[in-house]
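INTERNAL TRANSFER SHEET
From: sequence group
To: structure group
Subject: AraC family transcriptional regulator

Please process the attached sequence and return the structure record in the designated field. Keep the field labels unchanged so the import script can parse them.
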Amino acid sequence: MAEGPTPSRADPAAALPRVELLAELPDITVTRHVCRAGPRDRPFPEQHRQASLAVVLAGSFCYRCRDRTHALVAGSVMLGEVDEAFVCSHEHGVGDVCLCVNLRPSLLEAAASTSAAPGRLFAAPALAPRPRISALARALAGAADSRDEARAPEVEALALALTAEVFGELALQTGSRRAPQPRPSASDRGRAVAGAQYIAARASEPLLLKDVADHVGLSPFHFLRLFRAVFGVTPHQYLVQTRVERAAARLCESEVPVTELAFEVGFGDLSNFVRTFHRLVGLSPGRWRRQHHNRKIRQV
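Return from structure group:
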């Protein structure tokens, strides 16, 4: 964040934000944009080079797009379509930090298909703050900022969940209607089961949703919706649950150190494993082992 008003700049490019690459997956890129412009910086016309979905993490600015000026603060969402013109200004404060999610065009269009926006990808250029969107953005920023390749599935799942939430909120705020979702057919259920089996067989690997969707011949967003409709959980939630279940069994059956076991079942770091295990099981891995491993020995 900036520390005070900045002097007027003759070169408009000097007011452009600093872009930090946080994560780069096959179909998804996550970046952080840090801007230090202030009231004394003259705004200038810009153009979105690609479809933009950005959540404000800190600071504030004004975003003029489609002949209307939107005041954005922490939690607000800035949206822009390819080649769409806009102007950003900071007349009410200095600096801002935004988390930007860029999806492959076909993936973004698949996400947009869940809400009606005739003739446009985004039905509105900005969204008011919403707690769930803000929480997902901050969780995504934390996972991506770790630069841990083992967390790539988590980054992907959070990015897709954030995108879906934004389009859902767009439908609510603009009054557009989502198309009714038909009940899964027998063929759909078969694909969902095949996807679950694929996840279970490779649960210890850094598995991406794209890999599973490709395996069953669906787009990631279509598979995500189908899997949740059939099983009531997302593919990533199922992946995490599978890892935790296997870890719980291994803790009862072996003396493998918890740190080694965390990596064995597919977690990228010990703290994430301990936190997730406790959330799903209700006990820490060490306490689970002490209770159930000892009980098994007494039974024998």
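Handover comment: The first strand starts at residue 18 and ends at 24. The chain has three domains: 13-174, 186-232, 238-299.
Transfer complete.
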